[in-house]
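In response to a reviewer's request, we include the raw inputs and outputs for one of the modeled complexes. The two entities were modeled together in a single run.
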Amino acid sequence: MSEDKDRGITIKKEDDMPEWYEQVVLKGELADFSPVSGFMIIRPNGYSIWQKIQDEFNLTLKKYKVQNAYFPLLIPESFFKREAEHAEGFAPELAWVNRKSEDAEKLAIRPTSETIMYDAYSKWVRSWRDLPLRLNQWCNVLRWEVSDVKLFLRSREFLWQEGHCVYESEEECEKETLEILDEYQNLAKNILAIPSITGTKTEKEKFPGAKTTYTFESLMPDGKALQMGTSHNLGQGFAKSFEISYLDKNEKKAIPWQNSWGFSTRMLGAMVMMHADDKGLIIPPNAAENKVVIVPIVFKGKSDEPDKVAKKLESTLKEFNPILDDREEVTPGWKFNEWEMKGVPLRIEIGPRDVEKDQCVIVRRDTGKKEFVPLKDITKEINKTLETMQNDMFKKADKEMKDNIVEVSNFSEFEDAIKDKKMAKTLHCGETACETQIQEKTTATSRCIPFKETADGKCVHCSKPAKVVIYFSRNY
Amino acid sequence: MSEDKDRGITIKKEDDMPEWYEQVVLKGELADFSPVSGFMIIRPNGYSIWQKIQDEFNLTLKKYKVQNAYFPLLIPESFFKREAEHAEGFAPELAWVNRKSEDAEKLAIRPTSETIMYDAYSKWVRSWRDLPLRLNQWCNVLRWEVSDVKLFLRSREFLWQEGHCVYESEEECEKETLEILDEYQNLAKNILAIPSITGTKTEKEKFPGAKTTYTFESLMPDGKALQMGTSHNLGQGFAKSFEISYLDKNEKKAIPWQNSWGFSTRMLGAMVMMHADDKGLIIPPNAAENKVVIVPIVFKGKSDEPDKVAKKLESTLKEFNPILDDREEVTPGWKFNEWEMKGVPLRIEIGPRDVEKDQCVIVRRDTGKKEFVPLKDITKEINKTLETMQNDMFKKADKEMKDNIVEVSNFSEFEDAIKDKKMAKTLHCGETACETQIQEKTTATSRCIPFKETADGKCVHCSKPAKVVIYFSRNY
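The model returned the following structure tokens for the whole complex.
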């Protein structure tokens, strides 16, 4: 589409990560800018990854007996006001719809759907027999927070899933809130090969209206954390505000417990930053729509046997949804570059000599490693290589993430770590004022309080007795 | 959830179809009203049917090499103005977003996405190698036309798919525009057991900005047509307005041809009206998430063998996603009523005597027909019965639809047909003024001009020489 010299990624990941990132996403055709400021277009290469994530997570939803549903895009102003913290938290981000005087009240495009869903829940939940009520929706949401869009990472509109469940008991609610967090972490690993840490958000960082917010976060190569998704134990706050109650087994009126949890298309941004390289995208095998590209290597005027074998391979390898690139107007080298830029996990090359030997060459996108494979073993070998590649990508990313987390025990070390583009693991007093000061001094924010770790010592900043182990870093 | 006496459908289909329809949808828990005027909630029972439709149609998209993508929710005012007819057609239905002075221009929530997609297409399409370009999106759209929502049939927001393709040749464009229409008709038949007629819309009824609009319509039992979906040949109009052009194989600049096509959650409304009865929903087997409900019939103090067999059956019949209703607090009769109201295709009853005989009873929701089936044959028998039921439902609906279409040759017969809640098939001069007069006199609108029929005679209304065979009826 553009001139040849502009086709490749022209900036190195380590030289200018934001510019490199934008090029990789645009040239890999995952997404594009929209003429509407703050919005983005998700192109087929990106959307197919989102569909893989959806398919996989729909199975998880089934396991937890969560059903999909769909609630209205527009939410009345009065709904936001019912839960004070929630209202305050989202107020700056709302986009209002303007339909003259015909409407009784102002309507906002949903930034999240707690309020409109719980209004319905208050009607649907009557008896203990109606619980647990577990619904999810896949939808678009709008948060008017930014104007400088970062593709996938920050845009006014994004796609996500939001699960909203109601339980009889506090225990059941808390248990599933945490189980979903685990499922999220596994999903990121199994599909996108992304490692993450999990934990609890501080009071300052929790979701407006939640009792407790749990999060899973990954650490990007530039030392900035990316919040991948959150699972909120809402306690009974929303139930009280929205008058959700039920008759329990003893015919007594009771207030239920609720959670909500979501992840979004942001995850695709993490995938890019984590895995892509100076040649472009690297799509983890389990996220790739086309797992293989087949490139026959034919010399002008010579035998077209490689073309024939490639065509046959295309049908043999159907389960991998292969791309057969038999274009005549571009060279094999040009094709290699293109498919590397687009991140197809495996490339199969077939030249005249390979045809003679009944073999082909498999090249891994992540390592560039070449392997000669007898054609008769091809399916088995591709399966094996894809599995190995998925595991290797995760292991590599996991190691990089862990290498970028440093334990610090005083504020000078803390500041050095942040300056050095690391995530700091440290001790904290747990007070919001102190947390705010740390942010003002270093631009780092608290990411999460890991589970099951004991805080033994003093706060890294104010030296008061520590209450929590905590991660701090800059963030997206 | 409500009192027992209100649980069933309290109004007969033939007595008051609109009221009956609303009860069936609400009590079948397909959908619910939203506190926001003109909007609706799609509940899990309804959404699961939409998901079946999505899954099936995604296979069709693959067949046609159409890829899924996602474009922004908000569209700048200037985009609408580029195609004059399109702008005029949608102007009354737009909802504008109000974000003070920070935005350069007004933004509307998408009523359809031609404009925002084709703006991107003008950037992406450069060469004949980029064609055909075939994209689809599954999304929500907003049309502010109504305030009295009719669940699924008429609401300000609805879910749909919109396909938008770009071709080098007029022939290819026209061919696929019509092929998609066929696919739509098959989808409605194969999943929802809904019969339909297909044809061309008149100038008056075509999509704003289209060259030709093709439609598939079904006729509801109350004699009103329901437009199920449309496929538009857009010609080169949008391509010119949005400056989409490409270099052809001879390196000459050329204007491409485009189509767009969509169907929506309205289809679910057709399914209800067409098939449901005075007991409630009847979900066609291929649309049902749970194809079977198992009800053990246990008498107090007697053997619990039926319960055990029912449990075993639940796992044997896993592929049908069965519901096992082993609640103790309600009677079998109460359960029968509930699952009939919710439209589960087959009910399996197991009583003590069935256990003795190693059999169970299968009851079809559509006919109420009971069949004793040996337990060892159950899977085979259910498969067979579901298939028969799907076919029977289609045949019954198809016969009803055809019985409600009458051929008329003069205006008095025409008026009688419309008064008699029929669809009239007749001859027409093809002029918009005449068509408008018919509508003013009878409230009937032209539905479509069937393919391949010759108009031989005079216009039913103005008696000028007829140009087309045409269907007229009232409509949703």
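As requested, we also summarize the result in words. The radius of gyration of chain B is 25 Å. Chain B has a mean pLDDT of 95.
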